[in-house]
Amino acid sequence: MKNKKMLAALLAAILAATALAGCGGGSEESSDGGTSSTASTADSGTDSGSGYTSSTGIPISAPGEYPIVEETYNMDVFISHNTDVLDLETNSATLAMEELTNVHLDMTVATGDSYTEKLNLLLNSGDYPGVIMSAGFSNADLVKYGTTEQIFIPLNDLIDTHCVTIQERWAEHPSWQTDMTTPDGNIYGIPSADSAIVGHGAVGYKLWINTTWLDTLGLDMPETTDEFKEVLTAFKNNDPNGNGQADEIPLTGATGTWAADPYLNLLNAFGYYNENLLMLKDGVFTGIANQDYIQEGLRYINELYTEGLLDPAAFTQNEQQMSAIGNNAGDAIMGAVTCGHIGMAVSPNDIERSKMYECMLPLEGPNGYRGIPFTEELQLSGAAWVITDACEDPEIAIKWADALCREDMTVACQVGVKGEQWDDADPDTFGMDGETPATRKYLEYNTSGEGAQNYKWGWAQRLLEPNWKNTFQVVGDIRDTANYEAFLYQETEKLRPYAADVDQIPAFYLDEDQSARMSQLSTPLTDYVKSSFVEFITGRKDIDADWQEYVDGLENLNYTEYIQLYQDAYDALAK
Question: CA angle, 257 as apex, 86 and 131 as ends, to 5°?
Fold first, then answer.
C-alpha cells in the first residue's frame, strides 16, 4: 500500500540484494519458512546481465523475455473476483501467469457488487495498492486520478522501454495508442480490448427464441412487435413443452450482466436506444432517453409484463439465476431470453437444449423502425489496469501487464489449461472466418452461468487481446460445443443488415473540468433512467401520467448539459 512507499529509498539496497520488493510486498515464503521460486525456464529466462533493473534495483529481464525476475516477487494488487471463479489465488490462470513471470499476486479481492465501493474507499483513503486491475475506470477517471490527482502514474516510457506485446497490439490497431492517450499526452492505464467486440460482441442486445416451441405450435418466426406478443401469448397458454403444466416462462432476462435487461433489445424496435443515452448522427449528438418512441416502447413492454408474458424476475435476478431457468431439469420452460449470448442462459454443453434457441432478427415496431446498435470497429476507452504512485517497481508491473496481453496468456486466462479445456488444432482446419489456419481446438466450453470453476479468469481480467478466438478450429456441426464462438459469430452476422443508421461515437477525452463534471453527471443519469424504465415496465409508475415527471427529472439531472459535454468534446476532436 501507499504508506510503504516512504520506506523505499532507505530499503533500496536491501531490496536489491534480497529481491525483497513489490508493488506492496516481499519474497514469498514457502511452508517451511524458506523463500519459494516458481521461475519458468520455458522462455529465454531472466538475464541479470540484461542491463534492465527495476526502480529499487532488482535485475529484470529484457523486453519480451521471461520470467521477469529470478526470485519470486510479490506484486500488491486490488482485483475483482468473478462470481464463477472458486479461488483466484489457486486459479489455473493465476498460476500460469506466475509461472511465466515469476510474479506472485498479493491480492486484495472484492466481488463484483462491492468492488467499486471498496476501490473508491481505497483511493479516497490514500492507502491503496501499487496495481489496480479488473477495474472499470472511465476516461474521466483517468484524467481525474492521472492528470489531476497524479495517483495513476504515466505509462508511456514504461511501455516504450519494457513492453513488446502492447506495442504489437498498437501496430495491429493503430488507433488504440491514440485511444489510450489522455489530453496531457500521457497513458495512465491499459484498457480491456475483448476481441469478441468485432465478432459476436458487435451486437450485445440480442433476443433468443425457442424455435422448437415455434415448430410445435405451428408458429412462424416473429418479425414485428405484434407478432412477438402473439408468440409469447401462445408460449404462455398453449403448453409448448407438452407436459400438461402451465410452467412456461415466455420471456425472461437478467440484470447486472451483459445486455440481458429485456428493454435493451425491445426498445430498439421503436427507435434507436443505447445505454449511453446518446445518438450521434452527422456530427450531432441527440439525447434519446426522453424521446416519444421510448415512451411507446416502454408502453409495449409494460403490456408484456402486465399480461404475464415477461418474467418479473428479469429485473432482479442475476445471470446465474437466469441460467437456472434455461438449464432447468426436465422439460424446457424458457420461451425467449435477452442476453449477449445464449450460453449465458443455456449451457452450450447441453447441445440438445442449446439447439432449441436461435437469435431473432430485430423486431419491427409499429412505426416501421427496425434496427439494432452494431459496433463496426473496436475502440478503446477507460482502463482495466493501472499502476499507482504506491508501486515501488513499476517496471516489473508493466512487464507483467505486457505478458497478460500475449496470445498464450490470453488463451490461458480466457479458456483454460492445454490438454484440459483446449489442445492443438487438427491438421488442415480453419478458424471461424473459414480462412485463417486454426492452431487450437476446444476440448470443452463453459460459460460463466454454468457454475464455479477454477481454470480461467473470464471477462473480469483481460487487457489488450489479439484476435485469439479465430485461432480455434471450426469442424462439424456449427452447434457443437467446440464451435460455439463460430456459431455466435454467424448469428451476429445475420444482424449486420439491421445495423442502426447512426455513427459510432469515437473514443475521446474531456479536459479536466469537463471530466470532473461528466463524473458528476453520468452515473446519476444512467441509474435514474434504468430505475425509471423498470418502474414504468412493472407499473410502479404510469407510462402516461408520470412520463412528464420523468422527463423533468432528466433535466433536473442536467441531461442537456451531459449531451453538450459530448458535443463539445466531439467538436474539439474534429478540429
Answer: 60
